[in-house]
Amino acid sequence: MEQAVIDPSTASDFEMRIELERRIEAPIERVFEELLAELGPEGVTPDGRPLALELEPWPGGRWYRDLGDDAGHLWAHVQAIKAPTLIELTGPLMISRAIANNVQYRLEEVDGVTTLRLVHHAFGQLPDDMRDGMPEGWDHMFDRIQTRATG
User: Three-state SS string across the chain, please?
Assistant: First the structure.
């Protein structure tokens, strides 16, 4: 199984790059469907708490956490989407500081096996706990997508 890596050449106090790749034995459409579900109502933290996420899967659509009663957090906007091969999100994500994130998910299928790739760039006031926890969080998400897509 592939692991998330932080590129040390960009790991300054204000920059981060994470890359993760997973090969999933499932059709690309199924993996994309599970990716959208995980970015939305199926998303949970590594310790199992629901994230209450909503994703509007179109250009300019919001990715946000809905806490009810008109409360919540805007995590990103959909910068690009091309089902079932690409979704790109841009925004602060779960970080309430001066920060910009770009997260790209690219999918490619060869002989019934889909490769799911994530590239996450962040620039700004990135708290140490977020920097340390992001690779684990993305890997957890990929585990859940793989389990549901192949199950």
Answer: CCCCEECCCCCCCCEEEEEEEEEECCCHHHHHHHHHHHHCCCCECCCCCECCEEECCCCCCEEEEEEECCEEEEEEEEEEEECCCEEEEEECCCCCCCEEEEEEEEEEEECCEEEEEEEEEEEECCCHHHHHHHHHHHHHHHHHHHHHHHC
Between residues 44 and 3, the one the model is more confident about: 44
Structure tokens at 89: 């999100």
Could you report the per-residue pLDDT of 18-71, keeping only the tens digit for each?
999 999 999 999 999 999 999 999 999 999 999 999 999 999 999 999 999 999
